[in-house]
């Protein structure tokens, strides 16, 4: 058997994943719930191996502080983080049918279908419906637009539609509503009117405790639980900086209409790192170890120029040229690359795409996504963002708990700055319950603002300002406040660290690897293979006794015992199926090695080792074969190196006996 | 330093767990949410090691099929399983203050406080309040009853109260309400009236999807997700029986008023096994491997006799005598024992308690809890139940999906039985929408019922019966039904497997091990130690350079590299603290080994190895020391065996230098 591959077919892959129970819709016997999937034994083992590799690659290697924080999260925390207000998609209701559409997806789909209809009308395609059905099948989405009408559009309309589609991810709800009005977008099945888009928050809400009054959510990310433990972690780390925390756990997102299988689900496994770094020094101690790693970058200026052609360079060059903001961010980008390659991602289908200014959170200094190419297009699988001091600052402001690092300065420094003194005992009588708000407003002014205020006070004898949350203007004279420039000597530097956050969507990575590692043998396309790297393959070895003859049983038991002792995951297949069928099943499960036990094994204790991808076979003693498996699986050796002392083995009819 | 222990103090333990960030209240800077805790780095690593051990001990060793199913669960599934109707506690509201009490806890606490007041009135205790305060401190619960009044009770009232308290776990909501009326139990702080107990469902509810119409819950256990995948798992197992599935994941319980720290929380990690077995053959292939394991049993008859004195015998005897229902249940009980001992449970504080008839679910054939003794009393940490065919049957009935095993019979069998034939075309016109209900009622009659019906039909010319859900009686004559005895030959046996379910509360086990493994050195009670077994200790080795002198740095780096390569989790403590202080910190973290690097290390590359519990030290080469660590931690060797070739090492002042 050769290692040649037939053309990729998503349908074939999905059949294999279903047949071998890598995953399946949750609650399928109850009709299922969209966006929820269960992992069966091979999917679960694959996931566990990837998590284990992640833990070793990041946490152990870098001595990160792993935490396990709760999914249930009270309202206040997510209000502060911004998720209550901003973590939402836009949805439109059809009040008559009760249907709900995700606004951006609807606009996208309707305009795309009109463009296809236009092409048919222009005679550029034969049958847009057949074409779209094919497309829909490929994309496996439930299309809202059932029929495409061959209607020619004006040239300028085509251009407009194309411009809208190119920017579809960036529209606000209001803008989407305007587009729907302008282009007369209704419910595609009934043509009935839709309500204007409203924000639908994507967090699952629940009530904590019996009173029903403590609102809570299921976390949308693991990050917040890490931020809230910042001070405890810094203590745990003996106050040393920089350091990183990490968490692996489930997060939740109440998608409006989940699609694309494992790529967009409502409950998913994440692995996130929060690396805390001095904002004035974002160098990384181990950057030199990765500086020569060559990556494919899609920086924002290339995207702005309308290109999707990645730039290939080393991470060292990328940081030196300023394309990647800093060494720490660059270090993690390279480490993400190394991790993804290790677990089976195809390096030709991996790129790092920089966020455009309009995609990036306002506080972020820089952000790169590791995108993996699949039959659904390029998919964001890992985010790597410099979140600046945003998170610690907002939680600290809200809770009044200091989330800072205090560093003894080698040399004391003198600091000259403007300071504001409040005559606090006058604030209470004047502002009553608003007094804390006014005080907070005044003490949080920047140097620049203080200078302006000082001038205003000097020139007008008073300052006039507005405070958010208090009606009307506020006037204060110098019996309330005093602004002065002072000079202090400081021995301690206190700062809020910045956060570099690599954030992994494990399910998306897993699905992408399924696609990257799936192929069919060219000479028999029904013979499918999942070529997982041995280190992450769900099972490492299949034991195949030639028959159920009792002479073979003790050998199977003996090899099982040895494998179990060495903690090498294996399965025995002593079913009545032919050897060929058993190996075919095994190839679909991605098991890298097969061991055949035959009647020669009874005589001389030799066994045959088969390699999944090449179907090559070698013969040797139990000890030597297991040694080879162990070296290739866990010690980074290759098939060639580890089997060169073993005897090549040719069966009469290879896999098909 | 000796290994002698001072008396256990929960306060000391809690201080250590907090100081070393084993765990902490979640969202603490926001004031916390009761019943939610985060694990910090050592707690998280300890948990990961226990999960890893569990996976190897059960899943790998027994070739179980691990699955990862979703936490979000639709209403219908949990309605069928019985959780919507029965998974609740009883709560009472004070409508005036808005306070909510868990009814059984309130009755328990009020009656206990009255009994204490009685004792004081009788002069049996000096100050019941002081006593109770002490008690409350010990139990660390927020007591509702703030003050105990020294009021003497009638002797028969005392007896009544004691009887109620002994049965407190078994009352229904109505009964609790009657007790509250009878004993005049009000809000303890205001003496205001309370509403009668109402059922409070302990599941967290949420809405799935944007319409808000798909009700869902966070799963209260991982079991249901496993049951629903039964057929896929049986297929995956090539239809072979028996087999087991397993799941490790978070579950949720919206406790009315969580208390007892990690023992009663709202979000917790579970590990559950569902072992599917032939109801007619519950023997276990590997039972002989465990039959001589000696366990402490507290069977139901001993409990009924009012004793808590466990019976010590082998699991072989327990099964043979019928005390434990069957071999498979017994096998898992023994395997649970072995697991718990492996991860650090004190075998003197472990017992297996059988459920009493009133505790056990009606469908369960037998149920034993592994209980661990802590300062909170005996705590249920692992349940091991024979759930019969209940779960698969209810889901199958609800969904009409067969959840059965079909086995080819070695010899065909002849089955003679009564069968009922329905004249279906007459049912529709007569019963209209009720027809399916009537048909289902008739076709699900037992053999015994069919014989009765046949007689009735013969004697009266008709049968009269009632069907739940249909008003009035139903009469049918023999134009509708026909009952006959027939004989068939069957080649296939179809059956619903029974489920043996070992279910582990990982958080409760973890907390119990903290208590079992915590002690203070007798000569310095502030020196606390957590004596975790090396295999599950969060970190295995602490590297302690004598000073920050640059000569020592390369050696620390070199040892770090070797340990990392061998994947032995370690920490470096190069803080300025004294060696003694650093080891003390380390003992609190439960790290079994310390390596000291001193100036002799520079000369001859020798290092010192320190054992946590005994504080014994030996000296040897880097290779030999790491070899010893590896043997003791991962290969089951002892300190004595693995260090006998190394040189005993005496420091001038041992740990206190």
Overview of the structural elements:
The structure is a homodimer of 657-residue chains. Chain A has 657 residues and is of the alpha+beta class. Chain A folds into four domains: 10-70 and 219-386, BirA Bifunctional Protein, domain 2 (2-Layer Sandwich); 88-201, Herpes Virus-1 (2-Layer Sandwich), CATH 3.30.40.230; 410-493, Signal recognition particle alu RNA binding heterodimer, srp9/1 (2-Layer Sandwich), CATH 3.30.720; 539-656, 3-Layer(aba) Sandwich (Rossmann fold), CATH 3.40.50. Chain A is 37% helix and 26% strand. Chain A has 24 helices and 29 strands. The first copy, chain A, has a nine-stranded mixed beta sheet, with helices on both faces. Chain A has a six-stranded mixed beta sheet with strand order 25-24-26-27-28-29, sandwiched between helices. Chain A is globular, with a radius of gyration of 31 Å. The two termini of chain A are 12 Å apart. Residues 136-141 and 653-657 of chain A have low confidence and may be disordered. Chains A and B meet through strand 2, helix 2, strand 3, strand 4 and strand 8 of A and strand 2, helix 2, strand 3, strand 4 and strand 8 of B.
């Amino acid at each position: 058997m050769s290692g040649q591959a037939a053309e990729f077919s998503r349908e074939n892959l999905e059949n294999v994943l279903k047949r071998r129970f890598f995953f399946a819709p949750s609650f399928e016997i109850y009709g299922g719930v969209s966006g929820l999937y269960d992992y069966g034994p091979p999917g679960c083992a694959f996931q566990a191996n990837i998590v284990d590799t992640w833990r070793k690659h990041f946490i152990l290697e870098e001595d990160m502080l792993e935490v396990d924080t709760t999914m249930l999260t009270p309202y206040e925390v997510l209000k502060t983080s911004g998720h209550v207000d901003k973590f939402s998609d836009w949805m439109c209701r059809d009040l008559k049918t009760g249907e709900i559409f995700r606004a951006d997806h609807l606009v996208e789909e309707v305009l795309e279908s009109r463009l296809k209809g236009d092409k048919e009308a222009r005679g550029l395609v034969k049958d847009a419906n057949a074409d779209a059905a094919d497309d829909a099948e490929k994309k496996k989405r439930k299309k809202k637009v059932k029929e495409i009408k061959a209607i020619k559009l004006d040239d300028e309309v085509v251009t407009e539609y194309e411009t809208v589609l190119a920017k579809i991810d960036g529209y606000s709800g209001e803008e989407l509503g305007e587009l729907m009005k302008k282009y007369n977008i209704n419910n595609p099945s009934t043509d009935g009117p839709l309500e204007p888009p409203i924000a639908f928050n994507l967090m699952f809400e629940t009530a904590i405790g019996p009173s029903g009054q403590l609102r809570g959510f299921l976390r949308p990310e693991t990050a917040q639980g890490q931020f809230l433990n910042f001070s405890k972690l810094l203590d745990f780390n003996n106050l040393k900086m920089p350091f990183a925390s990490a968490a692996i756990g489930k997060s939740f997102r109440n998608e409006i209409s989940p699609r694309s299988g494992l790529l967009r689900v409502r409950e998913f496994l994440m692995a996130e790192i929060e690396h805390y770094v001095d904002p004035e020094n974002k160098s990384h101690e181990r950057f030199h170890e990765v500086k020569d790693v060559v990556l494919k970058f899609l920086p924002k200026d290339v995207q702005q120029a309308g290109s999707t052609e990645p730039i290939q360079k080393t991470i060292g060059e990328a940081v030196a040229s300023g394309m990647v903001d800093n060494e720490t961010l660059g270090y993690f980008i390279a480490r993400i690359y190394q991790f993804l390659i290790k677990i089976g991602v195809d390096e030709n289908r991996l790129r790092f795409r920089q966020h455009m200014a309009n995609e990036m959170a306002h506080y972020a200094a820089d952000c790169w996504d590791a995108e993996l190419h699949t039959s659904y297009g390029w998919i964001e699988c890992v985010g790597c963002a410099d979140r600046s001091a945003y998170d610690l600052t907002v939680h600290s402001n809200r809770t009044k708990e200091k989330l800072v690092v205090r560093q003894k300065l080698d040399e004391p420094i003198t600091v000259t700055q403007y300071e504001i003194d409040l005559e606090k005992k006058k604030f209470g009588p004047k502002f009553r319950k608003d007094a804390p708000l006014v005080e907070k407003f005044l003490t949080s002014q920047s140097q620049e603002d203080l200078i302006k205020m000082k001038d205003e006070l000097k020139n007008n004898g008073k300052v006039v300002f507005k405070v958010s949350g208090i009606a009307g203007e506020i006037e204060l004279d110098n019996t309330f406040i005093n602004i002065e420039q002072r000079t202090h000597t400081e021995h301690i530097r206190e700062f809020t660290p910045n956060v570099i956050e690599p954030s992994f969507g494990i399910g998306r990575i897993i699905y992408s690897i399924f696609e990257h590692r799936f192929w069919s043998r060219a000479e028999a396309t029904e013979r499918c293979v999942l070529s997982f790297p041995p280190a992450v393959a769900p099972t490492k070895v299949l034991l195949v006794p030639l028959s159920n003859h009792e002479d073979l049983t003790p050998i199977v038991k003996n090899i099982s015992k040895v494998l179990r002792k060495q903690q090498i995951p294996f399965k025995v297949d002593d079913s009545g199926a032919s050897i060929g069928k058993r190996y075919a099943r095994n190839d679909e499960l991605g098991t890298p090695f097969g061991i055949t036990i035959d009647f020669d094994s009874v005589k001389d204790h030799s066994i045959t080792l088969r390699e999944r991808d090449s179907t090559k076979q070698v013969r040797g003693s139990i000890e030597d074969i297991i040694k080879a498996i162990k070296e290739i699986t866990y010690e980074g050796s290759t098939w060639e190196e580890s089997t060169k002392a073993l005897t090549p083995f040719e069966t009469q009819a290879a896999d098909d006996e």
